[in-house]
Amino acid sequence: MNNKKKEDVILGVRFQRTGVLYYMDPLHYGFRIGDLVVANSNRGVEIARVVSIKPKEQLDKNIEITKIIKPATKSDIEKQKEQEKEASMVVKKCRKIVEEMKLKMKIIHAEYTFDACKLTIYFVSDDRVDFRELVKKLAAEYKTRIELRQVGPRDEIKLYPNLGICGREVCCRTHLENFDTVTIKMAKEQGVQINMQKISGACGKLMCCFKYEEEVYKENMKGLPKVGSLVKYNEEDAKVIGLDVLNKKVRIRVGKKDEERYETVEADEIKKAAKPNKKGGE
Questions:
Q1: Which of the chain's ends, N or C, has fewer CB atoms near its CB within 10 Å?
Q2: 156 occurs within a structural domain
Q3: Shortest CA distance to 63 belongs to which of 20, 29, 7?
């Protein structure tokens, strides 16, 4: 830890790899980034990882600060590993029951809270599912509180290792805490050819990358002409046929039909063409 006293710092912890960041009082314990703690989440008692350590005075006064229960011990970590094994068996058992009950749902994941007071089972489905009888059967089987939680395609993908089109692990598993809305309009503004197979991520939804670059494209577009507009380049008439928004460059067609040529120039090298005079019926 740094030179700050233990009581002067607050831990930032996550219960899941890309989950919500919680702020917690470390009590009298000393921690480093990467250490594990046992604490209360909105699901119950769980093990969390320390991802940040900040002085108290740097935090907003409106941020809720709770207390850890204790540092996670070796036996706590072993216990969690055993629970993960048991949870994988739950998934197999639950899938079998769902098949027998002919429910239109796909069981994808299960997890116990650290205190085993609750078993959460995640599923995906295109329809609303009445799973009350399923919950009763599972509660009788596992003798604990059962919660079935329906998740979307993006939440499903983040549960498994997947590579994006960039060759790196998908963002939802590495750093994304929340999913922002991504639209076709963003892709069009960024000059991407609309081919749904190529612009969709592993989850089948539009790639989150478009949201990352949206602000840069919007800012750069302010100084660029529209494709199809007429401009002046070195006192010659030209037509804009393409844009390189990130580099603020313009692709133009210059000259008359028999002598036309194509050039890519800096945006500040071109000028807007004067509007034609419409007087006299022109």
A1: C
A2: no
A3: 20
